[in-house]
Amino acid sequence: MGAGSWGTAFAMIMADAGNEVRLWARRTEVAEGINTEQRNPAYLTSVELPTGIHAVTEADAALADAELVVLAVPSQQLRENLLQWQIPESSRLISLAKGIENASLLTMSQVVADTGISSDRVLVVTGPNLAGEIAERQPAASVVAAWDPTLAREVSERCRTRYFRPYTSIDVVGCEIGGATKNAIALAVGMGHGLGFGANSLASLITRGLAETSRLGEALGADPHTFAGLAGMGDLVATCMSPLSRNRTFGEHLGRGHDVQRATELSRGVAEGVRSAGSIQALAERHGVDMPIVGHVVDVLAGRQSPRDAISTMMARHTRPER
């Protein structure tokens, strides 16, 4: 449900894994391009898609009798869509979005449950999964997380291909916090890159960003080991270091002196960290968790600090034991 970059790439994975796939696109021209030319004319335009994908513009047609429903819309639009869609009661739902809902401060699996869908039907797929690289069928690994380990194993087998290796986890909270928070950290790393900082500076931001992510996750009951794996460090490094990352690229525009409006104009697609950074900060404050990098990112996005001032302020913080 959603024919953006990641939705299209994941549809490709599912088709390559031998599944019959219906892909819901909002725009008629996108659906027609996929069906007639086996290409998405709006995203990943150079990628030839498998014949096992059929695109539709009617949500009911996409959802009819679906065994698995893959949720590939932006995080802040998920609830609105779920309340409109008629999802079959027997379907299992896979969330691809990485964010914290602004109004409720819920993760995406919690948003799904909050709309009346039992949490034992919900899974999360997350990890270092840049859509452009996966669309080229480059080797990648990911995590399929569910409260029920049997369900996680079953779904991981449904999306396993020669280039896409899914691992399983029962730490849904940890996997989602890792996926959401890394976007805000990637904005900070992008700012550093735009300011011309080198590997020492960027590695410091990534490492301390992981510490912030781990603190928040543990406060919410996550397994700390999750953040050393694909859903934590793996996703964080990929998002912070790749020019394909929307969040890192958005931050880079800010670091080069552009304001949020201009950075938005220069960026393609949704940078989830821009929409979710404030919610991550609010969630951290609710649980008494210190997240200074995320806080400074929020200040830059709000125009209260420049990227250079934000980095300088972080460096001026009191020294403390590393943890």
From TrEMBL:
Residues 171-311 form the Glycerol-3-phosphate dehydrogenase NAD-dependent C-terminal domain. Sn-glycerol 3-phosphate binds at K98, G127, K182, D235, S245, R246, N247. Substrate binds at K98, R246, N247. Its main location: cytoplasm. GO terms for biological process: carbohydrate metabolic process; glycerol-3-phosphate biosynthetic process; glycerol-3-phosphate catabolic process; glycerophospholipid metabolic process; phospholipid biosynthetic process. GO terms for cellular component: cytosol. Pathway: Membrane lipid metabolism; glycerophospholipid metabolism. NADPH binds at S5, W6, R26, R27, Y43, K98, A131, R246, V270, E272. InterPro entries: 6-PGluconate_DH-like_C_sf, 6PGD_dom2, G3P_DH_NAD-dep, G3P_DH_NAD-dep_C, G3P_DH_NAD-dep_N, NAD(P)-bd_dom_sf. Its EC number is 1.1.1.94. It catalyses: sn-glycerol 3-phosphate + NADP(+) = dihydroxyacetone phosphate + NADPH + H(+); sn-glycerol 3-phosphate + NAD(+) = dihydroxyacetone phosphate + NADH + H(+). The active site is at K182. Residues 1-150 form the Glycerol-3-phosphate dehydrogenase NAD-dependent N-terminal domain. Keywords: Cytoplasm, Lipid biosynthesis, Lipid metabolism, NAD, NADP, Nucleotide-binding, Oxidoreductase, Phospholipid biosynthesis, Phospholipid metabolism. NAD(+) binds at G2, A3, G4, S5, W6, G7, A131, R246. It is found in: Cytoplasm. It is an enzyme of class 1 (oxidoreductase). GO terms for molecular function: glycerol-3-phosphate dehydrogenase (NAD+) activity; glycerol-3-phosphate dehydrogenase (NADP+) activity; NAD binding. The keyword Cell cycle does not apply. Catalyzes the reduction of the glycolytic intermediate dihydroxyacetone phosphate (DHAP) to sn-glycerol 3-phosphate (G3P), the key precursor for phospholipid synthesis. PANTHER family: GLYCEROL-3-PHOSPHATE DEHYDROGENASE, GLYCEROL-3-PHOSPHATE DEHYDROGENASE [NAD(+)] 2, CHLOROPLASTIC. Belongs to the NAD-dependent glycerol-3-phosphate dehydrogenase family. This is Glycerol-3-phosphate dehydrogenase [NAD(P)+]. The gene is gpsA.
